[in-house]
Amino acid sequence: MPLVLRALSTRALALQPLAVRALSTCALTVQPPDLRALAIGALSPPACAACDAPVPARADLCTACAATVRRDTPTPPRCPDHPPLIAHALFQGAVARVIRRFKYTSRPDLARPLGRMLLQAARDACVHADLVLPVPLHPGRLAERGYNQAALLAAEIASPLRIPLLARGLARLRPTPHQARLARLDRFSNVSDAFRARWPARIQGRAVLLVDDVATTGATLAACASALHRAGATAVTALVIARAHEEATLDLPIPPGPNDLRSSLNRIP
């Protein structure tokens, strides 16, 4: 193996547990995350997560992109069956671009900067919970993408918050059309009864922090919360990076950046 590729592979393997923790399913062998993507994120000079401009060490966004971030204002649940929602920001500007790159251009390494945003939101809200659970993907979609973005985010925040992570606590029972492509009422019927708790005994009597990347109508989060309550959860709070308006186009194509390994035109919903 050429020296450069050997160095990339060695460093990528060191980072692989971040993604592997979020991947396993019961009856399906899942394609592992692209090690090239993890290596690029590890060995590239510090760059803005949204536009790839050079940034100082430990900075996630350049000055121009950071100026586009609009922090979210907590609001009460819109419906009685919706869990309380904590979001770091509105789905716009640099935050929207980083999320799209994370999901649609094979960039699992972006879980790190997005995880820091999520952690800031959780700490600002003084979150208290007994378990951290990610919103699951259907096994077929997980196999195609190679990673569950919500599970990677949950893995990033569980340890700093000192809350146990139950990475596979929820199962998605059936494939569902992408929520971003449906009308509001269709989104609720699309995910109705689509989730169940794998191990109710580990959830019963516990407060759960439910993690996802974006919330729009809240239909997916509400369906997951319902499954958790049926399993005996005493409380469910949803934590997301961004809250989007219902009119937002979450899967809008973006020009791939120099570190993006998969064209956004061939993205997986």
Automatic annotation (TrEMBL):
Protein name stated in the entry: Competence protein F, phosphoribosyltransferase domain protein
The protein's UniProt keywords, in alphabetical order, are: Glycosyltransferase, Signal, Transferase
Signal peptide residue numbers: 1-22
Q: Its Gene Ontology molecular function terms?
A: glycosyltransferase activity
Q: Which InterPro entries is this protein grouped with?
A: ComF/GntX_DNA_util-trans, PRTase-like, PRTase_dom
Q: Which domain of life is it from?
A: Bacteria
Q: What is the lineage of its organism?
A: Bacteria, Pseudomonadati, Myxococcota, Polyangia, Polyangiales
User: Is the keyword Disulfide bond assigned to this protein?
Assistant: no
Species this protein is from: Chondromyces apiculatus DSM 436
User: What family is this protein classified in?
Assistant: Belongs to the ComF/GntX family.
Pfam family of the protein (one) = Pribosyltran
Q: Does the keyword Glycosyltransferase apply?
A: yes
